[in-house]
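Example for tutorial group B:
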Protein backbone atom coordinates (compact mmCIF):
# COMPACT_ATOMS: atom_id res chain seq x y z
CA UNK A 1 0.00 0.00 0.00
CA UNK A 2 1.25 3.48 -0.90
CA UNK A 3 0.83 5.90 2.00
CA UNK A 4 -0.06 9.54 1.47
CA UNK A 5 -0.48 12.79 3.36
CA UNK A 6 -3.16 15.40 2.72
CA UNK A 7 -1.31 18.66 2.07
CA UNK A 8 -4.27 20.94 1.36
CA UNK A 9 -8.05 20.81 1.13
CA UNK A 10 -10.11 22.70 -1.46
CA UNK A 11 -13.87 23.08 -2.02
CA UNK A 12 -15.53 20.90 -4.66
CA UNK A 13 -19.01 21.26 -6.17
CA UNK A 14 -21.35 18.60 -4.72
CA UNK A 15 -23.34 18.80 -7.95
CA UNK A 16 -20.37 17.51 -9.94
CA UNK A 17 -20.51 13.78 -10.66
CA UNK A 18 -16.79 13.71 -11.34
CA UNK A 19 -15.65 11.54 -14.24
CA UNK A 20 -12.41 13.23 -15.29
CA UNK A 21 -10.03 15.63 -13.55
CA UNK A 22 -6.86 17.16 -14.99
CA UNK A 23 -4.43 20.03 -14.61
CA UNK A 24 -3.20 21.50 -17.89
CA UNK A 25 -0.91 24.53 -18.08
CA UNK A 26 -1.80 25.47 -14.51
CA UNK A 27 -5.59 25.27 -14.94
CA UNK A 28 -7.90 22.59 -13.57
CA UNK A 29 -10.46 20.96 -15.88
CA UNK A 30 -13.24 18.61 -14.87
CA UNK A 31 -15.60 16.38 -16.82
CA UNK A 32 -18.85 15.29 -15.15
CA UNK A 33 -21.48 12.64 -15.83
CA UNK A 34 -25.18 11.76 -15.51
CA UNK A 35 -27.67 12.39 -18.30
CA UNK A 36 -28.75 16.02 -18.24
CA UNK A 37 -25.91 17.04 -15.91
CA UNK A 38 -22.83 16.14 -17.97
CA UNK A 39 -20.41 19.02 -18.43
CA UNK A 40 -16.90 19.98 -19.41
CA UNK A 41 -15.56 22.72 -17.15
CA UNK A 42 -12.54 24.80 -16.34
CA UNK A 43 -12.62 25.05 -12.55
CA UNK A 44 -11.02 27.53 -10.17
CA UNK A 45 -9.08 25.37 -7.74
CA UNK A 46 -9.37 27.72 -4.77
CA UNK A 47 -13.12 28.31 -4.98
CA UNK A 48 -14.27 25.11 -6.68
CA UNK A 49 -16.39 27.24 -9.01
CA UNK A 50 -16.61 26.68 -12.76
CA UNK A 51 -15.00 29.47 -14.76
CA UNK A 52 -15.98 28.06 -18.14
CA UNK A 53 -18.60 25.40 -18.92
CA UNK A 54 -19.81 23.37 -21.87
CA UNK A 55 -22.96 21.31 -21.25
CA UNK A 56 -23.45 18.06 -23.14
CA UNK A 57 -26.82 17.30 -24.73
CA UNK A 58 -28.96 15.37 -22.28
CA UNK A 59 -28.73 12.09 -24.18
CA UNK A 60 -24.99 11.97 -23.49
CA UNK A 61 -23.48 10.67 -20.25
CA UNK A 62 -20.08 12.34 -19.89
CA UNK A 63 -17.01 10.42 -18.78
CA UNK A 64 -13.24 11.00 -18.59
CA UNK A 65 -11.36 13.93 -20.11
CA UNK A 66 -7.79 14.59 -21.21
CA UNK A 67 -5.92 17.41 -22.95
CA UNK A 68 -3.13 16.78 -25.43
CA UNK A 69 -1.55 19.53 -27.55
CA UNK A 70 -4.24 22.08 -26.59
CA UNK A 71 -6.98 19.67 -27.69
CA UNK A 72 -9.59 18.34 -25.24
CA UNK A 73 -10.96 14.81 -25.55
CA UNK A 74 -14.10 13.85 -23.60
CA UNK A 75 -15.45 10.31 -23.45
CA UNK A 76 -19.09 9.31 -23.11
CA UNK A 77 -20.28 6.16 -21.39
CA UNK A 78 -22.70 3.91 -23.29
CA UNK A 79 -23.01 6.44 -26.11
CA UNK A 80 -19.49 5.31 -27.09
CA UNK A 81 -18.74 8.74 -28.60
CA UNK A 82 -15.55 10.77 -28.07
CA UNK A 83 -15.98 14.54 -28.31
CA UNK A 84 -12.99 16.66 -29.36
CA UNK A 85 -12.85 20.37 -28.43
CA UNK A 86 -10.54 23.32 -28.85
CA UNK A 87 -8.97 24.32 -25.54
CA UNK A 88 -9.61 28.06 -25.53
CA UNK A 89 -13.36 28.10 -26.23
CA UNK A 90 -14.58 24.48 -25.73
CA UNK A 91 -15.77 24.43 -29.34
CA UNK A 92 -16.53 20.92 -30.55
CA UNK A 93 -14.47 20.23 -33.66
CA UNK A 94 -14.68 16.46 -34.08
CA UNK A 95 -16.28 13.23 -32.92
CA UNK A 96 -14.98 9.67 -32.88
CA UNK A 97 -16.82 6.41 -32.25
CA UNK A 98 -15.50 3.88 -29.74
CA UNK A 99 -16.10 0.13 -29.90
CA UNK A 100 -16.22 0.00 -26.10
CA UNK A 101 -17.84 2.07 -23.39
CA UNK A 102 -15.85 5.15 -22.38
CA UNK A 103 -14.77 5.39 -18.74
CA UNK A 104 -11.36 6.99 -18.08
CA UNK A 105 -8.79 8.61 -20.35
CA UNK A 106 -5.23 9.94 -19.99
CA UNK A 107 -2.16 10.44 -22.15
CA UNK A 108 1.45 9.33 -22.02
CA UNK A 109 2.37 12.40 -24.06
CA UNK A 110 1.88 10.77 -27.44
CA UNK A 111 -0.98 8.25 -27.21
CA UNK A 112 -4.38 8.35 -25.53
CA UNK A 113 -4.98 5.65 -22.90
CA UNK A 114 -8.61 4.67 -22.30
CA UNK A 115 -10.44 2.44 -19.79
CA UNK A 116 -13.88 0.89 -20.21
CA UNK A 117 -14.64 -0.57 -16.78
CA UNK A 118 -12.96 -3.89 -17.56
CA UNK A 119 -9.32 -4.74 -16.81
CA UNK A 120 -8.13 -3.38 -20.16
CA UNK A 121 -6.26 -0.18 -20.99
CA UNK A 122 -6.59 0.71 -24.67
CA UNK A 123 -3.95 2.78 -26.46
CA UNK A 124 -5.30 5.05 -29.22
CA UNK A 125 -3.67 7.27 -31.81
CA UNK A 126 -5.02 10.80 -31.06
CA UNK A 127 -5.56 12.14 -34.58
CA UNK A 128 -7.67 9.21 -35.79
CA UNK A 129 -8.58 7.29 -32.62
CA UNK A 130 -7.15 4.18 -34.25
CA UNK A 131 -6.62 1.41 -31.70
CA UNK A 132 -2.90 0.71 -31.35
CA UNK A 133 -2.86 -1.95 -28.62
CA UNK A 134 -4.68 -3.32 -25.60
CA UNK A 135 -2.92 -3.92 -22.28
CA UNK A 136 -4.77 -6.15 -19.78
CA UNK A 137 -4.22 -5.13 -16.15
CA UNK A 138 -3.60 -7.74 -13.47
CA UNK A 139 -2.60 -7.97 -9.83
CA UNK A 140 -0.85 -11.14 -8.66
CA UNK A 141 -1.98 -12.87 -11.84
CA UNK A 142 -5.67 -11.97 -11.47
CA UNK A 143 -7.50 -9.56 -13.79
CA UNK A 144 -8.17 -6.20 -12.12
CA UNK A 145 -11.67 -5.10 -13.13
CA UNK A 146 -13.51 -1.76 -12.97
CA UNK A 147 -10.68 0.52 -14.10
CA UNK A 148 -12.19 4.00 -14.16
CA UNK A 149 -10.58 7.47 -14.11
CA UNK A 150 -6.96 7.44 -15.30
CA UNK A 151 -3.95 9.71 -14.77
CA UNK A 152 -0.43 9.30 -16.14
CA UNK A 153 2.26 10.20 -13.59
CA UNK A 154 5.99 9.65 -14.10
CA UNK A 155 5.66 6.63 -16.36
CA UNK A 156 2.82 4.93 -14.48
CA UNK A 157 -0.95 4.94 -14.90
CA UNK A 158 -2.94 5.69 -11.76
CA UNK A 159 -6.51 4.39 -11.96
CA UNK A 160 -9.53 4.77 -9.71
CA UNK A 161 -11.10 1.34 -9.28
CA UNK A 162 -14.87 1.81 -9.49
CA UNK A 163 -16.87 0.92 -6.34
CA UNK A 164 -13.65 0.63 -4.30
CA UNK A 165 -11.61 3.19 -2.33
CA UNK A 166 -8.47 2.27 -4.26
CA UNK A 167 -6.28 4.06 -6.75
CA UNK A 168 -4.16 1.46 -8.54
CA UNK A 169 -0.62 2.24 -9.70
CA UNK A 170 -0.16 0.37 -12.98
CA UNK A 171 2.90 -0.25 -15.13
CA UNK A 172 1.51 0.43 -18.63
CA UNK A 173 4.23 -1.65 -20.27
CA UNK A 174 3.00 -4.97 -18.86
CA UNK A 175 -0.26 -4.10 -17.07
CA UNK A 176 0.99 -5.13 -13.63
CA UNK A 177 -0.42 -3.37 -10.56
CA UNK A 178 2.66 -2.25 -8.64
CA UNK A 179 0.99 -0.29 -5.84
CA UNK A 180 -2.32 0.82 -4.29
CA UNK A 181 -3.54 3.99 -2.60
CA UNK A 182 -6.46 3.58 -0.18
CA UNK A 183 -8.77 6.63 -0.09
CA UNK A 184 -11.21 5.15 2.44
CA UNK A 185 -10.48 7.81 5.09
CA UNK A 186 -11.08 10.66 2.62
CA UNK A 187 -14.26 8.93 1.43
CA UNK A 188 -15.49 8.72 5.05
CA UNK A 189 -14.59 12.37 5.64
CA UNK A 190 -16.46 13.47 2.51
CA UNK A 191 -19.50 11.45 3.60
CA UNK A 192 -19.64 13.09 7.03
CA UNK A 193 -19.80 16.51 5.34
CA UNK A 194 -22.16 15.52 2.51
CA UNK A 195 -24.02 12.20 3.04
CA UNK A 196 -24.95 11.90 -0.67
CA UNK A 197 -21.37 11.41 -1.88
CA UNK A 198 -20.60 8.61 -4.33
CA UNK A 199 -17.31 6.79 -4.95
CA UNK A 200 -13.82 8.30 -5.16
CA UNK A 201 -13.13 9.36 -8.75
CA UNK A 202 -10.79 11.99 -10.14
CA UNK A 203 -7.00 12.15 -10.15
CA UNK A 204 -5.14 15.20 -11.45
CA UNK A 205 -1.38 15.68 -11.70
CA UNK A 206 0.28 19.05 -12.20
CA UNK A 207 3.52 18.33 -14.04
CA UNK A 208 4.91 21.79 -13.25
CA UNK A 209 4.45 21.59 -9.47
CA UNK A 210 4.42 17.76 -9.13
CA UNK A 211 1.23 18.07 -7.07
CA UNK A 212 -1.47 15.38 -7.11
CA UNK A 213 -5.16 16.11 -6.51
CA UNK A 214 -7.99 13.65 -5.80
CA UNK A 215 -11.74 13.92 -5.29
CA UNK A 216 -14.91 11.91 -5.88
CA UNK A 217 -18.36 11.96 -7.42
CA UNK A 218 -20.49 14.60 -5.65
CA UNK A 219 -17.75 15.17 -3.06
CA UNK A 220 -17.70 18.46 -1.13
CA UNK A 221 -13.90 18.60 -1.10
CA UNK A 222 -10.89 18.05 -3.32
CA UNK A 223 -7.54 17.11 -1.78
CA UNK A 224 -3.93 17.75 -2.65
CA UNK A 225 -2.07 14.63 -1.54
CA UNK A 226 1.60 13.77 -1.35
CA UNK A 227 2.56 10.14 -1.89
CA UNK A 228 5.21 8.55 0.28
CA UNK A 229 8.33 7.47 -1.58
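The residue assignment follows.
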Amino acid sequence: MINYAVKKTYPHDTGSYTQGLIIYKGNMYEGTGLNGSSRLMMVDLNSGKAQKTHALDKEFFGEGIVILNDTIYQLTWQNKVVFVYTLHDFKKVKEFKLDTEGWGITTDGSNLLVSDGTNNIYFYEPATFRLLKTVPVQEDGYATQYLNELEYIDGFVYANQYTSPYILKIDPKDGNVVGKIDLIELWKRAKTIHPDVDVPNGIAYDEATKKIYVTGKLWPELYEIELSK
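The first helix runs from residue 184 to 193. Compare this with the pattern of hydrophobic and polar residues in the output above.
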